[in-house]
Backbone:
């Protein structure tokens, strides 16, 4: 089970009560990955949302003109990835690798999350609003990177 | 307050980072990314603060030598 204090440091859970955070904690499972290990791969089916507990991951995209995935972003503690799977059920849009040994993540399956949201629509509203804000933040990051 | 910071490194090989931190980044601060030291040259608020979170952008340049 994930500590409530850790979940309070993740922006997509901002605004949830301790009781609501406990319900989120109940559906989290921990994963540990070693350096270079692929956590998700571009174009593969998707199911889970990931929260970075400790460490850094590298997000990389395949390009037709490059032999391997090209790094486009690093994500550190408290960040999430795989959120698009929660929203659109599409294939993974990028490959995500652990940057160091003992990279610790929490994973939430889409099915478990949707079930929880159906049981408590207030959790669903708050988290989905925050996920939208997180996607907006990432878009703004890319806009600023292109200046 | 938790600061969610978007870091972009200009003229460097680093792809940029988004991370949470407890200290607000300031112009002149030095940060290390994957063994490369960079200096912050600009800090912007890119989304208004919400609950316990502030949302910032920091532009950095590689520190020579």
Residues:
């Amino acid at each position: 089970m994930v500590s409530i204090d850790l979940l309070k440091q993740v922006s997509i859970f901002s605004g949830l009560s301790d009781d609501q955070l406990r319900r989120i904690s109940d559906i989290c499972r921990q994963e540990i990955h070693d350096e270079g290990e692929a956590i998700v791969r571009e174009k593969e089916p998707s199911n889970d949302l990931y929260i970075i507990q400790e460490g850094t991951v590298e997000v990389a995209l395949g390009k037709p003109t490059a032999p391997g995935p090209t790094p486009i972003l690093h994500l550190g503690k408290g960040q999430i990835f795989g959120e698009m799977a929660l929203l659109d059920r599409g294939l993974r849009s990028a490959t995500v690798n652990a940057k160091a040994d003992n990279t610790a993540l929490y994973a939430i399956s889409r099915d478990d999350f949707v079930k929880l949201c159906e049981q408590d629509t207030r959790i669903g509203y708050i988290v989905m609003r925050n996920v939208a804000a997180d996607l907006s933040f990432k878009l703004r990051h890319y806009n600023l990177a292109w200046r | 307050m938790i600061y969610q910071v978007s870091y972009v490194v200009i003229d460097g090989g680093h792809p940029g980072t988004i991370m949470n931190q407890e200290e607000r980044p300031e112009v002149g601060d030095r940060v290390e990314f994957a063994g490369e030291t960079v200096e912050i040259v600009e800090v912007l608020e890119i989304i208004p603060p919400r609950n316990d979170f502030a949302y910032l952008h920091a532009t950095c340049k590689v520190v020579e030598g």
